[in-house]
Amino acid sequence: MKAVFTGLGVMAPIGIGAEAYWSATLERVSGITELERFDASGYPARLAGQLRDFKAEQYLSNRLLPQTDRVTRLALVAAEQALGDADVDPESFDDFDMSVIGSNATGGFEFTHREIQKLWTHGPERVSVYESFAWFNAANTGQISIRHGMRGPGSVLVAEQAGGLDAVAHARRVLREGVPLAVTGGVESSYDPWGWVSHLATGRISTVPDPRRAYLPFDEAAAGYVPGEGGAYLILEEEQAARRRGAAQVYGELAGHASTFDPRPGSGRPPGLARAIRLALADAGLQPGEIDVVFADAAGLPELDRAEADALAEVFGPHGVPVSAPKTLVGRLYAGGGPLDLVCALLSLRDGVIPATAHVRDVPADYRIDLVRGEHRSARLRTALVLARGNGGYNSALVVRR
Amino acid sequence: MTIDDLRRILTECAGMDESVHLDGETLDASFTDLGYDSLALMETASRIKEEFGIRISDEEIATVQTPRLLLAAVAEAARSQVAQAA
């Protein structure tokens, strides 16, 4: 069975829609700005990748607004775009022939912040009944499923930044069990004050105030990352089923995937990223030399950057494969990060362009990685490897092939 | 509380389809047909309590089927609250 991507939906700080995001990536538009939806002047870090122009009421009916957090709205719009791009009419499918498999790491923070504020200021009767599910990581999958009548197996995977790729891989599993189509991906948004302190609590957020110098993965000046909101949903279909319905286009095949978990800190054993890459390549039936480009996890913390660079050098050899980190324009999107990089990878394959990693200048020589910087690189691209690591020890590696 | 109040509160609590016009014609339509589920009605009851001080229990709101019956339940609850106070 081959699983192919036939539709893309993107909600990114630099563009709504896959093509808008891709153009902005190639034009190096940065979506990283000061936090806008609350006064963040008292916090040590104040930068995030935000969807500044997104007005949910332009996209969604007023029936959905009272019961959804911003993150669920982003998911609904991304899923709808992906369906539109794939030219899928859910009405023409049996309900049980469509699955929704998503990822979301932090849940509906903004909604919950507001309702908890009502709880302590006005009492329990003033708390919205929709708080019962709007907070939940699974709300996105549920709302997409209800909206489009998709009653095939539905799932939510939570693995911090690695969860988005894990979800896409799980969608392939569902296809293998006979479901012809899945809506899969992930989004994130938790940029109210309460959400913000939860990000800060990791100790991994950059406090550098300059948006061009705050998030510099693999750079000597790496000092943490900038979080961002949004992500992507994609349509994954069994290839023959996609052909039979006359799918508008095939962006690429989900050729391989693997997830691994890091050993406990202090065990002395190596982290699991290299093993995830090897297992994903084996799943795809590819040798390291057959991978044309890597979209890096790009943690932005020296120790983690070094670990990723070491894993790449170990599997591909020193400077053995071009590496890019287009997320330097949008920040780390947690569950949305992997799926957005996946969209970027598929469009890179389509157009034969590796987008340059923005803002990064000085990569330590002993990282031994070929990080694409400065100019975008034109190349004949057939395969791409997308990597994601989640705080807590999650590693996910996914291979796509044209 | 009037039908206009109910229309406004329902819209604030759970939105309203453009095709739905809550008026005399639809007073006897079922909430299900109008697109309001049990959560929407619980939210509505809580807003009625907040705005008008009239309490309708979760158990009662679950049995109210139409806008006309909801308005009647509100009127009845208001009368009994007044009677209790007196």
Automatic annotation (TrEMBL), chain A:
Question: CDD domains per the record?
Answer: CLF
Which intervals hold domain Ketosynthase family 3 (KS3)? 1-402
Instruction: Kindly provide the name given to this protein in its UniProt entry.
Output: Ketosynthase chain-length factor
UniProtKB keywords: Acyltransferase, Transferase
Gene Ontology BP terms: fatty acid biosynthetic process
Name the Gene Ontology molecular function terms of this record: 3-oxoacyl-[acyl-carrier-protein] synthase activity
Species this chain originates from: Streptomyces solincola
Q: What family is this protein classified in?
A: Belongs to the thiolase-like superfamily. Beta-ketoacyl-ACP synthases family.
**InterPro entries assigned to the protein according to its UniProt record, in alphabetical order:** Beta-ketoacyl_synthase (IPR000794), Ketoacyl_synth_C (IPR014031), Ketoacyl_synth_N (IPR014030), PKS_Beta-ketoAc_synthase_dom (IPR020841), Thiolase-like (IPR016039)
